[in-house]
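[job 4471] stage=fold_predict status=RUNNING
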Amino acid sequence: MNSMIGLHSDTAADRSVATSWEMGALHENEGRGCLLVLDERALDRECLASALLDHEIGMAIIAMRSIEEWHFKKRSASPLVAILFNLGGQKVTDNRVADEIKRISSEFNSVPVVILADTEDLAQIMAAVECGARGYIPTSVGIDVCVEAVNLAAAGGTFVPASSILSIRHLINPVTNPGSRDAQPLTDMFTLRQAEVAEALRRGKANKIIAYELNLRESTVKVHIRNIMRKLKATNRTEVAYKVNDLFAEGNLAEERNQ
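[job 4471] inference complete, writing structure tokens
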């Protein structure tokens, strides 16, 4: 009885690895490259890969249990554009986990490594960034935000959850500090919330990311964007970004003249 159970378990594990590779191979011509999903747990990694594909992430996906498995089975896969490392309940501050993130980030220097984990603790996020990660996604977010965060990293950006860094927000986002030099051009024209949205637009962030970071509904973000466009007499998001940049430039010039 025990031997039959063991045989079934081994067969299922082999099948799950094959399925994860075939999933990526079937989609390797879609999108602009390949996302490598790393997770030691077969069910978790395959469910995550399937969900990302269902939400049209725009790239091929290969789900593997480790980097070693990737090296063994990569064959002629599409070039990697991002690596999503699902830690689950593991902590980045554990030496073994930290060393693995450093190793992967160093080996794939030009490929952004994004961490997916169960905690939003600031210490874990900072540790991940210090280890070389280019993003940190808590599992409390929805799949749409996860897709946007991965795409942001693939495009050269970095995603971290704002909810865990509110206490030091004034240090990393001058718009929230009314006395800062950069905040003045926006707060003169907009409400504080509109200024935060305008700053996010200036940085090229998608509505879903803005909504998550500012703890707003996406519909509310759209209302703020419409009001910002009206005040700036802009017709689209790109024009908003240009005009907000101009506001910063004008504010800095005025500050220099007054000194």
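[job 4471] summary: The chain is about 55% helix and 10% strand.
[job 4471] exit 0
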